[in-house]
Amino acid sequence: MKKKVWAASPVFLVITVAMLLMTGASWYYNRTLFYVEVSISVVSILAVVISIVQFKAYVRTVRKSAAEAFQGINKASMEKISLPVVVVGEQDDIVWANSTFLNKVSSGKDCTGESVTQFTSGNKAAQMLSRKGVDVSYRGKRYTVFGMASEEASILYFIEDTYYKETAQEYKESRPCVALVMFDNREELARDCTDSQDAQIVAAVERTIQDWAGKTTGFYKKLSGGRYMVVMEERHLRAFMEKKFEILDDIRNIKLDERRYATISIGIGRAGNSMRECEFWARNALEMALGRGGDQVAIKQGDAYEFFGGMSKGVEKRDKVRTRVIASTLSDHIKDSDHVFIMGHQFSDLDCVGAAVGMWSAITKGQERPASVVINRRQTLASSLVESIENSGNGGMFLSPDQAEGMLTDRSLLIIVDTHSPSFVESASLYEKCKRVVVIDHHRMMVNHIEGAVVFYHEPYASSASEMVTELAQYLGENSLNRLEAEALLAGIMLDTKNFVLKTGVRTFEAAAFLRRKGADTVEVKRMFSDSIDTYKAKYQMVSGAEIFNSCAIACADENCPDVRVASAQAADELLGIQGVNASFVMYPTQGVVNISARSLGAVNVQVIMEALGGGGHQTMAGAQLPGVTMEEAREKLVGLISDIEVAVH
To answer: How much is the pTM?
Structure first.
């Protein structure tokens, strides 16, 4: 029972005495009032007596129950326990406390009748009994409280461990973290400015990083190649995380002009067993941040990553030397293989199939090695392209996953295009059985990516996998592409750039010009994007039913919709044409899974939103699959993520 109940008895006694005095005085004024007051006084006295008897019985019961819980130890023996001990009633009221508790915890104050929660950081007795030790604080001291339950009471004993907990906390807070900082668009800015401007920008960036490091007790070290190292304590890293790494915004404020500004990427390793392990994790995290487009922070702790930033568009990297080196290495692996299998992602689109066809042509004609494209014809979204190639007489190019597995040998090479995640490949079985794997992809790096590839050609700044294959084909066999294969690659580029609108750089147009010289007909490419009348109607039905929420358009499709995957992706593109819409999301169910197609013009990073739902993709084009949820549940999750969405202002 609560403290006010314990305090009721003496208060009732005082009131009763006062009432008796008033009753005696009323005898001389009004006999009727006297008898009424006598009756009330008698009832009050009886109530007080009954309450006192009940209170004493309650206390005896609780103490007896507590003593029985100690297997017969009496009150005197309980008093000798060196630990602070309290006996708590059913209402979390303190029935009894030993002298150690009164002296060390309550500072000599008699706390009988008070609630125990004031000493246990608000935790009730039942909560503490359900756990093996509860960390509490009281008046600057820290305790671990253990409990024992009996029929009528709970026994709690306090172990003071302030020194050990503060020491452990200081150990955690002072653990070293290694941060590697990369000025990731240093070369691009230097190419477009004078020497004096370049020196000013570099000095401003380094000064900003130094000021950021100066907020910690760690140190700053300039490395070579536009890299910097900052070693800090865990407490400072946590403070930076709470503020979402404001240094990213500070660096973006260093501008060459209104459209060109500096960006950095930061990789941080934390909670390692040694400084060497933290530095290794920091290098992995920096590679991950750069692979996701830069201008962000990646924190690695064990196998887990955490990301901050990533709002800016990726800056095109014009480094054809790397493409030539990749092509040379890839050529060596192709020549050492007896058969090359080329595989994309599930539900392959024009970019996936186009890149595979282009690679097949470069291998079979330029490198003169047998190759096959592995595709699931029942699930491809590029059936028009597959049919065109088959009608041209190259139907033997395509194999099903089962056929490819039957031809696999130890010398086979598997080239995966347009994805770098083992979860998304067309055939997981073929990937797992092949001993040598090459990855060619342009999507931003995902945590779950293919490891151990003999060649990992990842270019997040490229518009499409078809653009990357077009560049490689010029080194693997420039004269290998015919008109239809060039059109397949051009269709892939046009799909992912939305007809040269999104993620289109100089190299994109150079690749398109090369394909045009190879005979690619833009009219024929346009026909590959043609829809049936049912798909066209379904697309605009989704658009007409869309809702706008926080500058994002959300639309839902029925499972019975014809070509729902194609229609949903196209509807997401159409929704971006609505005024005030920065991002679009189209949801559709397929066999117990809710799929989401997400699109953006760059102001919103849809990749981050889809990653939170277990998907991934690009800043402007991403997707996710949510199994085991209804459309309404999936919509609630999506709305929750975009409710506080950040819109890039650069």
So the answer is: 0.71
